Inverse folding.
């Protein structure tokens, strides 16, 4: 005999705290601040998906290093695999998953370089050894041995033993200007809340609608 007991919903389907928002970046800032307090490690971790010139996708984890109304910023080498893929196909998708909050944020849009001034300012804020590592690593290139990498680190440590460490010319920042941002909140019985903001271009106004879970 089938169970005809009705499902008791512990709370309303519409949480009301975020589904009524009309400002995606304001909403992201609020969720990100909550994630900073609740996530045990790297609340700014995001998966970045890119594709090469042939359309083959690739995904990896990076760290968000800046966000404002212009978009979401991360840093890497232009000569890295993702740097080459962005050069061939300047668009990307990203997702944040905050397990402690049972939330996701998904976004996608065109990618552009941040200004040299912005990249310099962020590079200057990094620990000295991280700056040395940026010089020592030929990111995504084959590495013959760990010892070869350690020798490269030693070389640049000696080279920049005195004074400041400049930013490598290929070490740059990328900004994703989202054309869509989706906010996902876990709910009981897979009756999740999802809203998505979309626009035709980075300067266009947002439209918002709900999605079935």
């Amino acid at each position: 005999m089938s169970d005809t007991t009705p499902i008791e919903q512990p709370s309303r389907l519409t949480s009301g705290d975020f589904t009524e928002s009309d400002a995606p970046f304001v909403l992201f800032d609020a969720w990100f601040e909550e994630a900073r307090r609740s996530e045990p490690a790297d609340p700014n971790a995001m998966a970045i998906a890119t594709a090469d010139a042939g359309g083959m996708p690739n995904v990896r984890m990076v760290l968000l290093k800046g966000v404002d109304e212009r978009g979401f910023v991360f840093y890497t080498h232009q000569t890295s695999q993702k740097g080459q893929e962005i050069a061939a196909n300047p668009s990307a998708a990203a997702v944040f998953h905050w397990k402690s909050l049972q939330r996701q944020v998904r976004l996608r849009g065109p990618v552009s370089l941040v200004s040299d001034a912005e990249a310099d300012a962020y590079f200057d804020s990094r620990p000295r050894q991280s700056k040395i590592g940026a010089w020592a690593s030929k990111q995504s290139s084959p590495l013959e041995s760990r010892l070869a990498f350690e020798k490269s680190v030693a070389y640049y440590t000696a080279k920049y033993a005195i004074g400041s460490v400049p930013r490598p010319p290929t070490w740059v920042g990328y900004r994703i200007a989202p054309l869509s941002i989706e906010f996902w909140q876990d709910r009981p019985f897979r009756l999740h809340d999802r809203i998505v903001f979309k626009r035709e271009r980075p300067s266009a106004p947002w439209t918002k609608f709900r999605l079935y879970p």
The radius of gyration is 21 Å. The helical segments are 24-38, 81-88, 116-125, 128-136, 146-159. The beta strands are 45-51, 57-63, 66-68, 71-77, 91-98, 103-113, 171-176, 180-185, 193-198, 207-210.
